[in-house]
What does this fold into?
Amino acid sequence: MTGEIRRSVCALDCPDTCSLLINVDNGRGSRLRGDPAHPVTRGFLCGKVAQYLEREYSPDRLLYPMKRAGRKGEGRFERIGWDEALDTIVSRLAAVSSEHGPESILPYSYAGTMGLLNGSGMDRRFFHRLGASRLDRTICSSAGGVALNETLGFRYGTEPEQFAHSKLIIAWGANIMGTNVHLWPFITEARRKGARLYVIDPVATRVAKLADRHYAIYPGSDQALALAMAHVILSDGLQDQAYLDAHAAGLDAFRQRAAEYPPERAAALTGIAADDIVALAREYATTRPAAIRLNYGVQRSERGGAAVRAVTALPALTGSWKEAGGGLQLSTSQAFQFNGAGLEMPELQLRSPIGRTARLVNMSELGKALTELNNPPVKAMVVYASNPVGIAPNQNLVLRGMAREDLFTVVLEQFQTDTADWADIVLPVTTFLEHTDLYRAYGHYYVQLARPALPAPGECKSTVEIFRLLAARMGFDEPCFRDTDDDMIRTTLASGHPFLEGVTLERLDREGSVRLNVSPEGQPFLPFATGAFGTPSGRCELPSADYAPPVESRLGEESLVSRFPLEMISSKNDDSMNSTFGHRASVDRQTSVLQMHSSDAAPRGIADGDPVRVFNERGSLLLKAEVNGGVRQGVVRAPAVRWARSAQDRRSVNALTSDRLTDIGGGPVFYSCLVQVEKCGD
Ligand SMILES: Nc1nc2c(c(=O)[nH]1)N[C@H]1C(S)=C(S)[C@@H](COP(=O)(O)OP(=O)(O)OC[C@H]3O[C@@H](n4cnc5c(=O)[nH]c(N)nc54)[C@H](O)[C@@H]3O)O[C@H]1N2
Ligand SMILES: Nc1nc2c(c(=O)[nH]1)N[C@H]1C(S)=C(S)[C@@H](COP(=O)(O)OP(=O)(O)OC[C@H]3O[C@@H](n4cnc5c(=O)[nH]c(N)nc54)[C@H](O)[C@@H]3O)O[C@H]1N2
Ligand code: SF4
Ligand SMILES: [Mo]
It folds into this structure.
């Protein structure tokens, strides 16, 4: 078995969901690259995953089950066998369930893997049958997702391939070079044919530096900009009235709201000059086709939902959905019309001791859930595919919860993360190169399947297999707990939706990646060219919400602004994936800095490279100043998310972020965060 090339799929939480090829010699992977035949991957990978084999074979991989040997949080563990680990978990969960009710058990997971089986398959069945609390998975995209659904009815968007036909591309809160690099070749192709690229972002990201124009907007003010653009478009009569008449609802109320946002008012709210707003609106409305790549940065603020709704109204206003290379992409995920109910089996809750749908706990309020929630309190938490101590807001409150002696914590992990340090039991899991899974995407329209390309090291098991074993030990005798991976994939594909017609396990095994039947072969998918919005009215629902600056912003609550005058953005680090890859020294360096504008650094006596303390009412954090022109005055940026366990003060950026929720969707407001900064050490 030498010199074989196997296929896999990148499971990281990224819109690109790349198709991978890996060279395997005698069971060992030697080279990882993007599949040149895949229409979106196009033969290349991002830097972090091109080196994934470093992570795969890292000496820091967890290989055996362990139990806590020291105090909670101390991070001392001793190796145990699988039998002892599983028996301990089952007996503790059973005891907690009978004493406090099963809802005192909280699963906590997100998108450490985007694989459907390992990320949202057997685990869901297990917790439903147990009657555990349900987790409201809001941590990333729920404000924007709900906003899209309210406006468009479907989370569909412009295909990445169609950006090549655009004449104007607006990257709106979208760090394309860092978080969505496979869109870049299509943008480059469009620019070769004369297209312009504009970026709307408070931070001078790599893509902002490569753009034709960078609009350095104030954080959390996008709704005001979009309303002002709509105002200009409507007062100049540049709208596509026929499209609006046929396919939109709420135009009168939207027009009235937009009329309250003349460019001068929006200029004061956004920091973008009135003339620039007028020019941008006119150019957007008259350049055909024009596409907006909206990403999730915009919706991580207090008004993030309304902002996404206002931006999403623009392509309906101009009729841009009609054109290949027009429209907007925030997500494509809902086109994967899988049989989610068959995969997750929520009806198992009726067979649980509570016999009804369990309560829902918002993952973005984990600190509160662990310290305030009652009836019942959370007594056990099972964490997988997530690192909540690192990534959830208000880290100090989360840590207070994790430290509770009466909380039983299980963590299924590949690495000893900040969260694993607080576990009572740690279970070693496989990586995506080592197990079978089925993948959707949120930045393109290809379904993919991956089989194990490499053997599992040590005693690692897949997350699916671990929940199968736990179910058996719990005595759950429903046949679904004996489903094989292939059974689960077949069930998931069998939704009967036309987008999935002919997409079978056999075909995926043959082809690896299959385009959804969103349009006839060779033709672009134009989701809303002829209306067909998924809203109850069948129309694009134009929003009418008013704007107000976030409480935590330069124009926000005065008592806060006076003490904490800087707006902190902790956006994604280019070379990591949330907290994944935090074990790398290079990533640790990149995520331990605070980017500042010189006019904010100088009055504080801070020079480039100085150690600084960043603080607010929730916490304090030590970082190194980078006075490098990356941010505009009044804004600071700390790339997310460092491993707190590597930091001298054992904290990371979420020690500062707020656990307020967004206006729509109950999401986190990571990027509405006021702080003060001082120089350390004198
Ligand atoms: N390299 C890398 N890639 C990733 C990730 C990663 O951690 N690293 N994470 C993955 C995940 S989980 C996700 S959800 C996606 C997210 O992908 P993106 O949404 O592209 O990433 P973010 O960094 O959250 O935000 C994008 C940009 O929005 C800007 N921004 C912040 N606040 C505002 C605002 O108020 N208005 C405007 N207009 N812009 C604002 C930020 O400065 C940032 O440059 O990326 C995925 N891909
Ligand atoms: N300040 C700030 N905080 C943020 C963000 C930000 O931009 N700024 N971004 C937010 C966003 S958008 C998101 S999506 C969240 C992301 O938060 P998380 O989903 O928690 O993402 P990661 O930090 O990448 O942690 C995922 C973990 O899953 C593990 N894992 C990978 N594959 C598997 C598997 O198959 N099984 C199991 N059991 N584990 C696996 C990895 O080893 C890793 O430790 O963070 C949020 N937090
Ligand atoms: S993280 Fe994104 S760009 Fe990088 S390999 Fe994975 S899917 Fe592709
Ligand atoms: Mo995310």
Observations:
- DSSP finds 25 helices and 27 strands in the chain.
